[in-house]
Write a structure and sequence with these properties.
By secondary structure, this protein is mostly helical. 82% of the residues lie in helices and 0% in strands. Helix 1 (2-39) packs parallel to helix 3 (73-94) and helix 2 runs antiparallel to helix 3. The longest helix has 38 residues, at 2-39.
């Protein structure tokens, strides 16, 4: 019975860590999309800097949430919503029909 409980705790701990890794990989993918859009002149310099600042804030939030090695559902939801918001903002900036 003890070994079963220990195995459950280990699997829960690894689930928290693996989900946190998903946030980092999502953030890295989003960052590369932002850089590619800026390189292809789909974003202005101001839009690019706003998105980069937002990426820094999200990264700091992830690090703060991981500081105690436990990510609560509230922390996960907040991080996920900021990443989604950033993706939507990137899509909006890319298609705003301004000529640069």
């Amino acid at each position: 019975m003890k070994s079963f409980l220990i195995a459950m705790l280990i699997s829960l701990a690894s689930a928290h860590i693996s989900h946190a890794q998903d946030f980092k990989s999502e953030l890295k993918k989003l960052d590369s999309e932002i850089k590619a859009a800026y390189k292809n002149k789909k974003l202005t310099e101001l839009e690019y800097s706003k998105l980069q600042r937002e990426q820094d804030v999200i990264q700091a939030t992830i690090e703060k949430a991981q500081a105690d090695d436990i990510m609560t559902p509230d922390e996960k939801n907040k991080i996920h919503s900021t990443i989604i918001r950033s993706k939507k903002r990137l899509a909006k900036y890319k298609t705003n029909r301004e000529i640069y």
